[in-house]
Amino acid sequence: MNEKLSAREAILARVGSAVGAFAETPLEPPASARFAPRRAAGPDAEMDLLLEEVRRLNGHGRTVQGPGGFGAALAELVKAQAVQKAAFSDHPLYRRYDLSGELARLGVEIVPPTSDRSLVAACDLGITVADGALPETGTVLLRTTTGQPDLLSLLPRVHLALVTPDTLLADLHHAFSLAKGDRHFVFVSGSSRTADIEKVLTLGVHGPKSFHLWICL
Amino acid sequence: MKEPMEKIDFRANVQQASPAVIAATRNSTRTALRIRGDVVHAFGEERWQRLRQAGHDLRLHSLTHLDRYLPLLEERVTAAGGRVHWAADAAEANGIVREIAARHNVRSIVKSKSMVSEEIGLNHSLEAAGLRVYETDLGEFIVQLAGQKPSHITAPALHMTKEEIARLFREKLKVDARPVPEELTELARQRLRPEFLSAGMGISGGNFLIAETGTLLIVTNEGNGRLSTTLPPVHVAIVGIEKVIPDWESAAVLLKLLARSTSGSKITAYNTCITGTREAGPQEFHLVLLDNGRSRILADPIARETLLCIRCGACMNICPVYNNVGGHAYGGVYQGPIGAMLTPQLMGTRLAGGLPFASTLCGACAEFCPVMIPIPEILLHLRHRFVEGDACEGPSVPGLLKAAAWAGRRVLGSPSLYRLGGRMARTLQAPFRRGDWLPSLPAPLNRWTAARPFPAFRGDFRSWWGKRTAAGSAVEPGTGRGARP
Ligand code: SF4
What we know:
The complex is a heterodimer of chains A (217) and B (485).
Chain A: H1 7-18, H2 43-56, E1 60-64, H3 66-80, E2 85-88, H4 92-96, H5 99-105, E3 109-111, H6 117-121, E4 125-129, E5 132-134, E6 139-143, E7 158-163, H7 172-179, E8 184-188, E9 193-194, E10 202-203, E11 210-216
Parallel strand pairs in A: 1-11, 2-3, 2-4, 4-7, 7-11
Antiparallel strand pairs in A: 5-6, 6-8, 9-10
Chain B: H1 10-16, H2 19-43, H3 45-64, H4 66-79, E1 83-87, H5 90-103, E2 108-111, H6 115-119, H7 122-128, E3 132-135, H8 138-146, H9 162-173, H10 181-198, E4 201-204, E5 208-210, E6 215-220, H11 224-230, E7 234-240, E8 244-245, H12 248-263, E9 270-275, E10 284-290, H13 294-298, H14 314-318, H15 320-325, H16 336-347, H17 349-352, H18 364-368, H19 375-387, H20 399-413, H21 415-428, E11 437-438, H22 446-449, E12 454-455, H23 461-470
Helix pairs in contact in B: 2-12, 3-12, 9-10, 16-19, 20-21
């Protein structure tokens, strides 16, 4: 180590001499490097915008009213997507809607999210509860926890994200300040997509082919 | 760099580009430009220019303070349970990855798209060590299967038609493939799912490294970036040292610029934020910080702005040269204007000194670049530097070009001569002009037109720019460049 600098020291020395002229300038980025975040409109307008953006991303957005509305919407989804197996974590919202009971009544097999990943991959439907939603882009923020692993919104071919109106955020800036202390989080906007073949938009490459966002009122 | 590499002969490469490839390239770039135009228009032209300025200023701030941000990043990654490795060049980076793979008895690897891994020839190095490497980005998967090189930084298979891809799948995957993008995509999904589930290691690049929290930010549309960094027990990310940004405020600005410029969307489908290790994620997270010539680029106050690049691909979509010659002519990993700037600086003059000359300096790329890199200015600067004998690599430029560069410096260094030249070009081209093109030109310019027509000079950049800014664009002349020491 003595005769030869470690790669780390060598790189830092080269970088240091390249930008040495800036050694005295403050580390805070200049004001010109900032861009004011978007401001939210009224709650109803924001909800409308969220649903509209989800549709623009070729996703399916809707509101559901109470347990009755949720049950009906779920029955529709299960039928339309031919769902036979579903995976989801534990969440107070699911208990309020009796998600397990509803799925059982619809004849859907429930796969625990912590089971073997190939079992989760074999699920038709993965359900998540969003920790935040960005109306401007039709995006949900999913903070990864052991209870709600990343795989739920990734392996099954259909992803259903549930959003409550109190989690709507005006801009990415707000979402970042909420989650930046986490070890892992994802922003999901629509389903997995590609335009790698002749720029033709194709849904469902490695992740879900179909994205559903329901605002739970 | 220790890996043996070949000299890039742009002119010879241009002769090899088939008309079919050029047609496919133009088709794709035209679509890309249209959707980008729509989304930028919706954002508001004036706001967009302000956002670009913010992006430029913050990338330049990050670069000029890299000596302080890098150790900060390292500290935060380590505190979150990650391991940071430093690699001075390609050979060191490849060695680090091979060593991690050996320690974990890895046999197969899933890779999400990473320009840096192409730059260091990682696949080759891993395959030589007996490992199986699967490119999982659809475009990369296609070019890997075809044994070709990517022709565009964000759309690697842009030069191929669906018919060619279907033929390739039938041949290599032994499946019944029809030329339908949806079906071809489904075939790739089915082929790669089992590999994701069984791979011993996932390798990714990274779009940004956030010093504030030690976070790796990966932007993908397909979901392969998420799968390769979640499923395998070991995740290795290889990222150039220039990708560090100060904080999350900065990430918010850059993500908006990147999504709009790359895919014409307001946001990319998946933005994944990874800080060290986590419960129920990969047991190990390794971050390889790669220099490979970047610190040398940083030392040149003009060329330094090359490193502002966020790899969006917009400059190649708009570039008339790229659209006439296709991506493979640039010989390297990076194509179009960014390739013409970056490749010779990474590989050295001896191998790639001709690339900065592969441009008409029309300025369209600088207009489109989301972080306002003054691309034509850097290309000119590199021409001068290389003709005068690049300090580190030694020149390989013939005397004629030396004389031309001397004249160029005189002309471009004097505003009145430059303007006169611009007007003369428009007058002198008259006998050769056929519509918007100059199909053939006298020697020595015929060396260009023998392969491709040359777009006619339709006006000069200065007066166009003057009119444009007078018409109320938010960009004032001169603000495209950041502070210089
Ligand atoms: S140079 Fe600018 S336009 Fe080109 S890829 Fe980089 S950021 Fe995009």
